[in-house]
Backbone:
C-alpha cells in the first residue's frame, strides 16, 4: 500500500516536471500567438477545474463563473493600474479618492481578488443552500447580471462601460501555468479528502448523505467558495493578460464556454476538465472560420456573436442527449491506468 | 405627489407585472411537473415576439392573426423542445436536464442572432393599440389596458383547465407522482408535452405584449425577462399559478414605482427581481402563497 502511494506521488511529480518543462520550452520557443492561446488554456484550466468542483463533483448546477471572474478581474485591475494611468482613464466621472490610493503587487492583488470572490460566494450560499440546490442556477445567473449592472452604474470605481485600461501585463506562461498547476493540485486534494467524499455523497443522493450525518450545507458551501476563489484568481490573471477589461467581457457566454468544457470533459473529472479546456479553447480557435468578425478568442467581442455559438450549443445538447458521460466520465487519469492494468491481467 | 401621475404609474406597473405574470406561469407549471427550471422559456417568449413581427411585417397578417401564429408557433416549439431534448432525459440526473435547458436557450438566442441579426427590429404596432384613451382623467394607450385584461382572461382559462378538466387533473396529479400517474393509465409524457405547449403559448402572448410595449424585437430580449419571471414565480410560490401572477405583479410594480419616484436608482431596475428572489429565499423559501411544494400543487 505504502509503495503504491509513493509510486503515485512519483508519477505526479513527473507530470508536474513535464508540464513545467513544457512551460519553459513554450515561453522561449513558441511565437506570440501560440503563447497567447496557451495562456488562455492555462487560465481556463484554473476556471474549469474549480467550476467542476461545484457542478461536477458536488452536482449543484451553478452558473456563477462570469460574475466571480468579473469581480476578480476588477479587483486585480484596480489594484494594479498605476495612479498616473488611473488619472486620465476616468472619463465619465472622477473616481472616489480611495480608488486612486489602491495599489498592490501582483500576488497580493490575485489573492485579494480570490478572497473577495470567495467571501461573496459565502454570502450567496446562505440564501441559496438553505433550500434545495435548484435555485442556485437562477441566483448565480442573476448574480452575473447584477455584477454587470453594478460595474456599469458605478463609474466612480469601475469607469462604467468604458472599463479599465492599461493594466500592467503581468500574466505570462509561468504565472498562468504555475497557478493552473496549484489550482489542479488543490482541487484534486479537496476531491480526495473527507470534504470531497461529502461533496460526492451530496451529488449522488442528498437525502442519504444527510442521513449518514454529512453536513450537506457545509459541503456545498465549501465547494462553492473554493470555486469562487479560483475564479477570482483566474479573473485577475485574465485582466493582467488582456490589459483592458470592460463589463461586456464577462457576459453569460463566458460561463457557457466553461459549461461546455466541463460537460465535454466529463462532469466530475478534473482530468476531463483539463482535456475539455484544451479541446474547447483550441477548437474555438480552429472554428473561427465559422464567424469571421469575431476577434481573438470569442470573449473579446460580444458585438457579433455568431455561428460558433450555435455550434457550441448544439454540441452541448448533443453530449447531454447521447454521451452524457463526456470524455472521461467521473474518472481521473490514474483510474484509466488502473482499469488498463486489470484488463491486462 | 400628483394623483394622476401616481395612477398612471400604477397602471404601468400593472401592465408590466401582467407581462411578467404571463411568462412566470409557464415557469411555474413546468417546474410543477418536471422540477425543471426551463431556461429556454424566456427565449420561447422571444420567438413568440419574432413570430408576431414576421406575421405582421413580412406576411402582412392582421394583428389578431399574427398573435395566433405566434401562439401556435411557440406552443409547437415548446412541445418540440420537450419532445426532442427533455423527454430522453426523464430518468437522467437533474443536472443533465438543466444543462440541456441552458443549451436550448443558448441555441435559440444565437441562431436568431445569426439568422436575423442582433439589431432590434421595430415592431409594427397596429395604430389602434397606440391610441390614447381617457379613463376618468387618465390618458393611456389602449395596450396598457389590454395587457392586464387579456392576462386576467388567460388566467381564468388556465385555472379552468387545471381545476375543471380531466387534463388539468392529470397535470395536478403529475406534479405529485409521475410513476403513479403512469400506472393509472395516463400517458405522462403526453401531459408533460401539453404543459410545455400551454406555458409556451402564454409566453408567446407575453412576448407579443412586450414587443408592443417597447415596440421592438431582438434575439436577447427574452434573457432578462425570463430570469425576472422565474424570480417572480419563486417570490409568489413556485408551483402555484396564482403565486406566479402575484409575484409577477409585485416585481412589475416595484420596477415601475421605484424608477418613477427614485430616478437615481433607474440603472439598478434590472436588479430588483433578484434582490426579491434572494430575500424570499432567505426568509420564506416557499414564496408568498406559502405553498409547501411537497404537499400542495397549483
Residues:
Amino acid at each position: 500500500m505504502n509503495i503504491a502511494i509513493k509510486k503515485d506521488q512519483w508519477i505526479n511529480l513527473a507530470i508536474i516536471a513535464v508540464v513545467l518543462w513544457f512551460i519553459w520550452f513554450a515561453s522561449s520557443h513558441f511565437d506570440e500567438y501560440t503563447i497567447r492561446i496557451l495562456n488562455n488554456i492555462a487560465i481556463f484550466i484554473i476556471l474549469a477545474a474549480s467550476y467542476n468542483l461545484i457542478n461536477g463533483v458536488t452536482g449543484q448546477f451553478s452558473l456563477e463563473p462570469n460574475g466571480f471572474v468579473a469581480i476578480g478581474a476588477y479587483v486585480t485591475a484596480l489594484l494594479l493600474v498605476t495612479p498616473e494611468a488611473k488619472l486620465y482613464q476616468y472619463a465619465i466621472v472622477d473616481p472616489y479618492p480611495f480608488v486612486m490610493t489602491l495599489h498592490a503587487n501582483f500576488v497580493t492583488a490575485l489573492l485579494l481578488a480570490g478572497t473577495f470572490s470567495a467571501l461573496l460566494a459565502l454570502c450567496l450560499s446562505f440564501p441559496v443552500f438553505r433550500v434545495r440546490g435548484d435555485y442556485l442556477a437562477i441566483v448565480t445567473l442573476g448574480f452575473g447580471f447584477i455584477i454587470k449592472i453594478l460595474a456599469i452604474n458605478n463609474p466612480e470605481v469601475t469607469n462604467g462601460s468604458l472599463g479599465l485600461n492599461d493594466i500592467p501585463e503581468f500574466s505570462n506562461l509561468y504565472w498562468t501555468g504555475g497557478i493552473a498547476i496549484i489550482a489542479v493540485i488543490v482541487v484534486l486534494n479537496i476531491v480526495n479528502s473527507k470534504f470531497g467524499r461529502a461533496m460526492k455523497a451530496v451529488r449522488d443522493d442528498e437525502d442519504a448523505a444527510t442521513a449518514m450525518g454529512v453536513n450537506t450545507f457545509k459541503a456545498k458551501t465549501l465547494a462553492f467558495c473554493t470555486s469562487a476563489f479560483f475564479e477570482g484568481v483566474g479573473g485577475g490573471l485574465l485582466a493582467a493578460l488582456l490589459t483592458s477589461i470592460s463589463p461586456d467581457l464577462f457576459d453569460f457566454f463566458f460561463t457557457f464556454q466553461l459549461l461546455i468544457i466541463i460537460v465535454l470533459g466529463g462532469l466530475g473529472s478534473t482530468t476531463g476538465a483539463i482535456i475539455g479546456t484544451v479541446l474547447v479553447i483550441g477548437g474555438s480557435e480552429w472554428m473561427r472560420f465559422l464567424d469571421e468578425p469575431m476577434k481573438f478568442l470569442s470573449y473579446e467581442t460580444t458585438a457579433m456573436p455568431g455561428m460558433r455559438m450555435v455550434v457550441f450549443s448544439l454540441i452541448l445538447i448533443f453530449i447531454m442527449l447521447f454521451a452524457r458521460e463526456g470524455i472521461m466520465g467521473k474518472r481521473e487519469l490514474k483510474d484509466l491506468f488502473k482499469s488498463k492494468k486489470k484488463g491486462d491481467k | 405627489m400628483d394623483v394622476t401621475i401616481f395612477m398612471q404609474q400604477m397602471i404601468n406597473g400593472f401592465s408590466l407585472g401582467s407581462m411578467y405574470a404571463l411568462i412566470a406561469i409557464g415557469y411555474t407549471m413546468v417546474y410543477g411537473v418536471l422540477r425543471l427550471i426551463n431556461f429556454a422559456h424566456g427565449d420561447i417568449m422571444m420567438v413568440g415576439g419574432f413570430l408576431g413581427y414576421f406575421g405582421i411585417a413580412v406576411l402582412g397578417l392582421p394583428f389578431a392573426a399574427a398573435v395566433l401564429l405566434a401562439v401556435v408557433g411557440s406552443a409547437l416549439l415548446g412541445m418540440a423542445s420537450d419532445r426532442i431534448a427533455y423527454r430522453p432525459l426523464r430518468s437522467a440526473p437533474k443536472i443533465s436536464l438543466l444543462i440541456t435547458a441552458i443549451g436550448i436557450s443558448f441555441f435559440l438566442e444565437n441562431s436568431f442572432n445569426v439568422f436575423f441579426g442582433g439589431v432590434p427590429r421595430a415592431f409594427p404596432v397596429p395604430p389602434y393599440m397606440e391610441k390614447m384613451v381617457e379613463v376618468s382623467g387618465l390618458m393611456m394607450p389602449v395596450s396598457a389596458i389590454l395587457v392586464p385584461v387579456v392576462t386576467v382572461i388567460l388566467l381564468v382559462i388556465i385555472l379552468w383547465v387545471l381545476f375543471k378538466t380531466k387534463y388539468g387533473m392529470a397535470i395536478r396529479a403529475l406534479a405529485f407522482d409521475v410513476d403513479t400517474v403512469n400506472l393509472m393509465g395516463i400517458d405522462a409524457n403526453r401531459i408533460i408535452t401539453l404543459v410545455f405547449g400551454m406555458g409556451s403559448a402564454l409566453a408567446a402572448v407575453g412576448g407579443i405584449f412586450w414587443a408592443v410595449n417597447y415596440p421592438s424585437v431582438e434575439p436577447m430580449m427574452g434573457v432578462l425577462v425570463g430570469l425576472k419571471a422565474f424570480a417572480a414565480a419563486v417570490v409568489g410560490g413556485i408551483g402555484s399559478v396564482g403565486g406566479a401572477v402575484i409575484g409577477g405583479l409585485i416585481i412589475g410594480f416595484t420596477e415601475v414605482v421605484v424608477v418613477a419616484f427614485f430616478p437615481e436608482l433607474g440603472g439598478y431596475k434590472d436588479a430588483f427581481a433578484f434582490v426579491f428572489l434572494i430575500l424570499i429565499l432567505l426568509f420564506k423559501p416557499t414564496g408568498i402563497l406559502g405553498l409547501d411544494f411537497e404537499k400542495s400543487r397549483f
About this structure: Chain A has a mean pLDDT of 84. The radius of gyration of chain A is 20 Å. Residues 130 and 217 of chain A are 7 Å apart (CA to CA). The interface with chain B takes residues 55, 59, 61, 63, 124, 126-128, 130-131, 134-135, 137-139, 141-143, 145-146, 149-150, 152-153, 252, 256, 259, 263, 267, 291, 304-307, 309-310, 312-314, 316-317, 320-321, 324 of chain A (CB under 8 Å).
